[in-house]
Structures are given as C-alpha cells and as structure tokens.
From TrEMBL:
SUPFAM superfamilies tied to this protein: SGNH hydrolase
Name used for this protein in its record: Hydrolase
Species of origin: Paenibacillus ginsengarvi
Matches recorded under InterPro entries: GxDLY, SGNH_hydro, SGNH_hydro_sf
SGNH hydrolase-type esterase N-terminal domain location: 18-165
Residues annotated as domain SGNH hydrolase-type esterase: 176-356
Length: 360
C-alpha cells in the first residue's frame, strides 16, 4: 500500500547509533512517583500498602505521564520499545495508546518545549524501533520523550549518535510534584499521542514534575487508593478529578469526603483542587445527564465550602463544565465524553491559570 511519505511508519535507523537504557544516569525518568525505588515504568508501587482494586493495579502498568528527560547534542534520535501487548483500542490511535513522542527545548530550562515527532510503527507488533529525528545540527538540546498512555512498557532504549554527549536534564523549579488523580480522561483517553494528554500539556507550561494517576473506568476514590497516593512525597498540589467514575451521586457523597480526609491526614497544608467533570456532548439531548452533573457539582461545591468553613483554607473547587469551550464544546471529543487533542488543549488552557495561582 502506498502512503504519503509523512504517513508511513518511521524508518529504523539503528546504524551508527549507541543504545542507552534510561534506567541509567544521566537519563531521568519523571512522572512515575515510585520509579526511583523500583526502576519500573509503572504508576503505583508494585506492592502497595493495602489492597488496591485489581483494575487499578493493572492500569498502573500503563506509564501515562511518564517522561524520559536528558540533554544531548546528538544529530539523530531513535527509540526501541518493547510493549506488554499490542495496540487494541478501537477509538484511540495506536500512536496515543502505545506510541512515544518527542519534544525538544533550550538546554537551560524545562519550559517551553517544541513538538518534534511521534513513533509510527506496525501496530500488529509488540516491539518496534523508530527514528524520531535524523541529520539535525549537533547542538545541545533538552529532550523529553513522553511514554505510552494505555499500554505497558517492558523495555525502552534510546539511540543516539556514537560520540554524542549525554548529560542530565535541567532541574524543575522545585522538588515538589503536582499529583492528578482521576479517570480515563486523566489517563489520556483519547489523545492521538502521549504529549497531548492535558497533564503532559501542563508539564510543558509549568516547570514542575506532574504525576498522572488517572485510571480508566477505575478511579473511583477508593480509600485504599487514597492511602497509596498519600505516600507520594513532596506534593505541590493534589488535583482530584474522578467525578466521571463515581458510579452514583450517593457513592460519591461517601467516597469524596473520606478520600480528602485520608489525604489531608498525611498532608495537612498541601493545596487540594476538587475538579468537576467536563460536559458530555449529548447532555443537551439527554437531560438526565445534565441533571446528574449539576447535582454532583453542587455537592462538590458544598463540601469544599464546608471544609473551608471548618478551617481548611487550602482546599478549592474548580468548575470544569466550560473547559471544552462554549457553543462548540461537543466538537472536542472522540465519542461524546473522551477528549480529542483539541479537547485536551482546551482543558489545559482552562485549568492552567488556576494551577499557577496555587503553585507559583
């Protein structure tokens, strides 16, 4: 089959490259809170305290938000990736589910960054090798590789020109980390490539490490998960955005206060931002969806107000109902609920100033 040259799978250009394991210095893997201890591309500890839901434990193997960071003057860059399974989603591109994308920036700062390329490969395979750039000028660059959103990664290697310098990446503005807990949308469904999930977009605008703890269909505010999240050290902020998975308003009324209580016991002063869910495209056609969203939003607002009256002045509410925009908000999803890249960009635009107020 003939393709536009830009639509073909990336060529493998292993000749003349030296292959590196990102587990080794000076590479840095960020966005995975337990990586330093366990050296695994996983979003939760292998043996979490207590028993987390089986689905959450499985989805933790998808390294959404994980990033490989380094500086290099290499004129070429390739990656070799060994996935846990093949691409298998019907409404999300393999480039988002299983791909790696690349951004570059100035060598002395972590923001902003410029998109370069995404791995395009034979989606019937579990292993692939792709070039992300070749024959560039050999000048020092800050390089960020965003890891797959919806598939596990067993191994990944970075191929750079033989003799190219490789040094540690620039530091974040502080050691504190932004932790975002939520749903399939938080995990990245259905971005066309990893860099377009809204947590990764925000990481290119705010010079802090972002921890993505979105669990597709399974982030339901369980106390066992709250206990694990509370173990993450140096939180700059906790964003709680699991309303879309709450099953029922009654259950939400039970889980959210307890989730906050557990986290607050471990982090009494950390800012907590409670986020209501985005609008579904079909809400105007099926009014009960609108009524449920409004009921839950009122509950979130009331809960935050009560906690603030009780003295917790570091908890806040963010109304995300307008995050996808105005009259054309329904054009921002793949299936009526999961955002496209446009939807994720608008979500990031909406919450960015709020986070900056809390963080910077």
């Amino acid at each position: 089959m003939k393709y536009d040259p830009n639509m073909r799978p990336n060529e493998a250009t292993g000749d003349g490259l030296r292959w590196y394991c990102p587990l080794e210095q000076p590479f840095e893997v960020s966005g995975l809170a337990w990586f330093r201890e366990e050296q695994k591309y996983r979003r939760l500890p292998t043996l979490p305290p207590g028993v987390v839901p089986k689905a959450v434990d499985h989805l933790a193997n998808h390294p959404a938000g994980g990033q490989i960071r380094f500086l290099s003057d290499s004129a070429s860059l390739s990656v070799r990736v060994k996935l846990k399974d093949k691409a298998n989603m019907v409404h999300m591109p393999a480039t988002g589910q299983c791909g790696v994308d690349c951004y570059v920036g100035a060598p002395d700062t972590v923001v902003p960054l410029q998109y370069v390329n995404t791995t395009k490969y034979d989606v019937t395979l579990k292993e692939y090798e792709c070039a992300l750039f070749t024959n560039w000028k050999p000048v020092k660059r800050y390089i960020v590789l965003n890891l797959p959103l919806y598939q596990g990664v067993e191994e990944i290697e970075v191929g750079l020109d033989e003799g190219a310098a490789v040094v540690a990446p620039p530091s974040y503005a502080s050691a504190k980390r932004v932790v975002i807990y939520g749903t399939s949308i938080t995990q990245g469904g259905c971005a066309s490539r990893p860099g377009m999930v809204y947590t990764n977009i925000l990481s290119r605008r705010i010079p802090l490490e972002f921890i993505n703890l979105g669990f597709s269909g399974s982030g339901k505010g369980e106390p066992e998960v709250a206990e694990v999240i509370a173990k993450i050290s140096d939180p700059a902020c906790l964003v709680v955005d699991y309303e879309g998975n709450c099953v029922s308003t009654e259950l939400f009324r039970q889980t959210l206060p307890e989730f906050i209580r557990i986290y607050r016991a471990a982090h009494p002063l950390t800012p907590i931002l409670i986020v209501s869910r985005i609008r579904y495209a079909r809400e105007e056609l099926t009014p009960h969806l609108y009524e449920m969203r409004m009921e839950r939003k009122r509950f979130e607002q009331t809960l935050v107000g009560e906690l603030r009256e009780q003295g917790d002045l570091n908890i806040y509410f963010f109304d995300a109902s307008k995050s996808l925009g105005g009259e054309d908000f329904f054009e921002c999803t793949v299936d009526g609920s999961h955002p496209t890249d446009l939807g994720f960009l608008r979500m990031a635009d909406a919450i960015e100033p709020v986070l900056k107020t809390l963080l910077l």
